[in-house]
Amino acid sequence: MPRGTGNLTGVPFPEAAREAVGNAQLRRNLAKATGTIRAKRAAVVGELPDWAELRAAGAAIKDDVLAHLDTHLTRFEAAATERGSTVHWARDADEANRIVTDLIAATGAREVVKVKSMATAEIGLNEALESAGIAAVETDLAELIVQLGHDKPSHILVPAIHRNRAEIRAIFAATMDADLTRDLTDDPRALAEAARAHLRRKFLAAEVAVSGANFAVADTGGLVVVESEGNGRMCLSLPHTLISVVGIEKLIPTWQDLEVFLQLLPRSSTGERMNPYTSVWTGPTEGQTSHIVLVDNGRTATLADPDGRAALRCIRCSACLNSCPVYERTGGHAYGSTYPGPIGAVLSPQLTGVDRNPTLPYASSLCGVCLDVCPVAIDIPSMLVHLRAHTPKPPTESATMRAAAWAMSNHNRWRRLLRAGRFAKALTRRNTAPPPLSAWTRARDLPQPPPQTFRDWWASR
C-alpha cells in the first residue's frame, strides 16, 4: 500500500475532531487566519469578470491531462531528458524515498535544503532521510516553524496556521542559535528576520536541494514553483544537485496553459493577483545536476475511478480548507492525513484506500462551499457521497438502512411509519435517541417529529 497519505495518527476523525473543537485557542487561531484569507480571496476573485470561464478552462486542461496522462508523461520525460535532467519513475512512496536517498547519499551530503512540497510530505521523505542519517531542512517559513516545533503541518498552504505569534517566538528561541534570538519579540518582522538569518546559513552551506513542483510542462520538460518568500529561488539555484519530487498529476500540456493557472492559483491560495516569486527551470543550471522523480503512489488507482478521478485536478491552493466550516473548527491535525480539509477527505482515501481512512469521507457537512470556491471546479461533495458508499458499515447501520428501504418502497407502509413518528417523541430525551441509535445522535441533533404529518395535514384540508 502507498504510505504517507494514510491516517498518520491512528485516531479516527470524530475522536480527533472532538478534542480539537475543545481547544479554544486553536479555534481562535484558525478563525482569524482562514477569515483573513477568505476575505482577500473574495476581493481579488471579484475583480475578474471572466472568473467562471477561467475555472472552466482550468478544469478542462486538467481533464485533458488525466485523459491522456500516458502521452503527456512520455512527452515530459523526453523533453526533460533532452534538456539535461535525469527522470526517475517511482511506483510508490518506498520507491520514491529510496531513489531520493540514494541520489543524496551518492553526493556525500548529510544535510539538504527543501522547497515546500506536499509530495515529499505525502511519501514521508523527511523521515526516510533521517533514518539514513541525512537531515532535511525546510526553508518555507511555515514549514520551518512546524519542523522546529516537532509538529505536523495542519494546512496545505499555511502549515503553521494553528500557531500564533507568541508560540512561534517561543519555538524560535528554543531552537535557533542564541545570537539570532537574543531580544527576539513576537513582532512578525522580527520573527521573519530571525528565520531569514537562520536559513541563509543553511542555503550557503547546502550542496543538495529537494523541491516539489506546482506544475510540470509536458512540451518543454520545465518545472514551476510558485512561492512568496524567495526560499524556492535560493534552493533551486545555489546547490550543486537539485532533486525534484513531482506527482504525475502535476502535468499541464503546454507552456501557454500556465497563463490560466497562474491566474487561478494565487487568487485562490493567498488572495494575491500574482505570486511574488514564480520560478521556472528547464534542466540544470550551469554546474548543476538535475533529477526529477515522478511519483505515482496511488494516483493511477484514483485515475481508474470515474467518480473520483477529478480530485486529481487539484492544484493545492487550499481554498476549500479556508472556506470549510468543519476545517475552521477542527484544524488540519484532526484529519490525521498529509492532505487535510475537504480535498484531503476525498484524496487521502482515494490514494491509500477507503479502508485506511474510513471516517474522512464523513468529515463534512456537504454544504458545498468547497465546490463553489475550487478554482478547477472539483465536485468534492459528490465525491464524498461516492466514497461514503464504499466505507465499511456497522451491522446496525446496514440493518437500519435495509429497514428504511423496505418502509419507503411502499407508500402505505411509509405513511404508517410517518404517523408512528408522533409517538417516537416519547422514546427520545433531549434530542437523544435510545440505544443503539444513541451512537448516531451523540454527534447530531435529533429533530423532533411534528404533531401531524404533511399527508394528514393535506387530507384535513
UniProtKB/TrEMBL annotation:
UniProt KW Transport keyword: yes
Key words of the record: 4Fe-4S, Electron transport, Iron, Iron-sulfur, Metal-binding, Repeat, Transport
One Pfam family in the UniProt entry: LutB_C
Domain Lactate utilization protein B C-terminal positions: 393-461
Domain LUD: 74-286
Boundaries of every 4Fe-4S ferredoxin-type domain copy: 311-378
Keyword Flavoprotein among UniProt keywords: no
Protein name: LutB/LldF family L-lactate oxidation iron-sulfur protein
Organism for this UniProt entry: Actinokineospora guangxiensis
